[in-house]
Amino acid sequence: MDPEGLARLDRRIAGCRACPRLVDWREEVARTKRAAFADWTYWGRPVPGFGPPDARLVIIGLAPAAHGGNRTGRMFTGDRSGDVLYQALHDVGLASQPASAHADDGLELYGVRVTAPVHCAPPANKPTPAERDACRPWLVQELRLLRPTVRAAVVLGAFGWQAALPAFAEAGWTVPRPRPVFGHGVHVELDAADGPPLGLHGCFHVSQRNTFTGKLTPEMLRDVLRTAATAAGLPPTKRG
Asked: Which residues are in the Uracil-DNA glycosylase-like domain (predicted)?
């Protein structure tokens, strides 16, 4: 475990300007704002991962929301997707509170770190393949720093799955060939030549489209989180 290394990585991520389109978009959103958040000073930068440096479970999303993480500076904080995720984490005993409004609201994650393969808010929530690939080294470094303790991962959505598999490979785990196909509830064991395996779990993304239509229900999300937490050696509760 290297807490200082992870803190340094977070600072470097927050200063990245590698993708011109994403830089322009995140900063334009931060200037123009949404009317409901007119009195906010937007973060308007890449959003680092969130959670303890000795996490046993990592949750990988897609990218920060324009008026969520791009506003608050914390992953899945300040938008409805985050409301769903943190409620579920609280329900299974992995978060200190069920909601996350801003970066200083006191939310703590227990043994869990939340991150993304793309750290800047993209237009229409759609990073390009080139932007995904340019951001991958950050995820690879984060996974390497987490390797001493992390034992399971939950990947939200097909985009995150496709982006995360090569990052897991570069970070030292063996990804099967052909690559496993994404699906809700899919579970794959990734072996490592120099350490314990990683339990990889697929889950539909906590997007409004999925949660409003019932494609992903709170119970479905809690089930995946409980399964992954057990695989990681964390003690989920039975609430919710």
From this structure: 48-225
pTM of the model: 0.96
Query: What is the C-alpha to C-alpha distance for residues 51 and 75, in angstroms, rounded to an integer?
Result: 10
Using CA atoms, how far apart are residues 162 and 183, in angstroms rounded to an integer?
11
C-beta of residue 61 within 8 angstroms of C-beta of residue 76: yes
Q: What is the pLDDT of residue 235?
A: 81
Q: Which of 146, 173, 119, 168 is nearest to 51 (CA)?
A: 146
CB contact set of 168 (below 8 Å; sequence gap of 6+): 143, 153, 175, 190, 198, 200
Q: How far is CA 101 from CA 83, 114, 145, 161, 232, in A?
A: 9, 16, 28, 27, 27
Q: Is 3 exposed, middle or buried (0-12, 13-18, 19+ CB in 10 A)?
A: exposed
CA 148 from chain center: how many Å?
Answer: 19
Reference 67, options 39, 42, 101; nearest CA is 42
Count other Cβ atoms within 10 Å, centred on residue 21. 14
Q: Residue 204: what pLDDT?
A: 98
